[in-house]
Design brief:
There is one protein chain. The chain is mainly α. It has two domains: 8-67, lambda repressor-like DNA-binding domains (434 Repressor (Amino-terminal Domain)), CATH 1.10.260.40; 88-131. It has helices at residues 8-18, 22-29, 33-41, 48-67, 110-131, and strands at 88-89, 96-97. A two-stranded antiparallel sheet has the order 1-2. A hairpin with a 6-residue loop joins strand 1 and strand 2. Helix 1 (8-18) crosses helix 3 and helix 2 crosses helix 3.
């Protein structure tokens, strides 16, 4: 099994996924904000020492995140469950869902459905004005 190399993109992805600033990541890795920004920008090479610290932090972070994930369901679930669809955010409330249909983009909350209908009606009125 090959290891993924620590790249500027991978550093940025971890920061974005965790919502950390460059300063916060620098504090966690015991370096400076400007060093993190230089690594992300590609102006400095990624050293072996930094890569080792980064991989350790990444493993710890994702292990903690995996332990704290929760699934909320309206129905009783079996002990083991295989999810075949990827989770998506509702376009209105921005909460995560696994929708039953791949083209579905809005959750079943009545307020979200009403807002989606209003937006569709607005778009339809705009497109009628353009075509006339």
């Amino acid at each position: 099994m090959g290891r993924k190399a620590v790249t500027p993109t991978r550093i940025r992805q971890l920061r974005d996924a965790q919502g950390w600033s460059a300063y916060e990541l620098a504090c966690k890795l015991n370096c400076t904000r400007s060093y993190i920004k230089s690594l992300e920008g590609g102006s400095l090479p990624i050293t072996h020492r930094f890569a080792m610290r980064f991989v350790a932090l990444e493993r710890q972070t994702y292990a903690e995140a995996a332990r704290h994930k929760q699934i909320k369901s309206l129905y009783p679930l079996p002990r083991e469950l295989k999810i075949l669809a990827r989770p998506r955010r509702c376009r209105i409330c921005r909460e995560w869902f696994i929708f039953p249909h791949p083209q579905q983009r809005v959750c079943t909350d009545p307020q979200c459905c009403a807002t989606a209908r209003q937006l569709r009606a607005k778009r339809a009125r705009r497109s009628r004005k353009v075509t006339q």
